[in-house]
Hints:
Layout: H1 13-16, E1 27-29, H2 41-45, E2 51-53, E3 66-68, H3 78-82, E4 90-92, H4 93-103, H5 114-123
Antiparallel strand pairs: 1-4, 2-3
Bound molecules: iron/sulfur cluster (SF4) (2 copies).
One iron/sulfur cluster is lined by residues 29, 45-46, 48, 50-51, 68, 73-79.
Amino acid sequence: MTENTARKDERPPNIASKPPRKREPLKLAVINQNGCTGCEACIIFCPVDCIEIVPGVDFTQFQQLVEVDIERCIGCALCAKNCPWDTIPMLSYAEGIQKAPELTLRSVCNQKSASDSKTETANA
Ligand code: SF4
Ligand code: SF4
């Protein structure tokens, strides 16, 4: 199994309380937040309720965005098919784990915050 190295800390309580999937999926949905408008259409279609609105405490000047909890996504692609902005690529499991931090820049699942982003930028 490909290890999810994107997560930095413990899962937030609201996400940790949701049931885990039974097996590793072939594909993962990853939100490309560069194209996301925050319309929430994808959230309605997800059968396992694993698309989250990213809290914007540190980013109040920016629009709402969503992210997929890649540890619960079952790869059904319903979100990708129904995103009006075509901004949810379906990636192989290994590629999804790898690309999620790049495409889903604002993330509560990955525990990224404004201060993390500043640190990453400073270290780049
Ligand atoms: S449907 Fe697409 S644009 Fe709308 S919130 Fe989901 S990812 Fe963003
Ligand atoms: S691929 Fe399916 S399970 Fe994964 S986020 Fe999209 S709708 Fe949810």
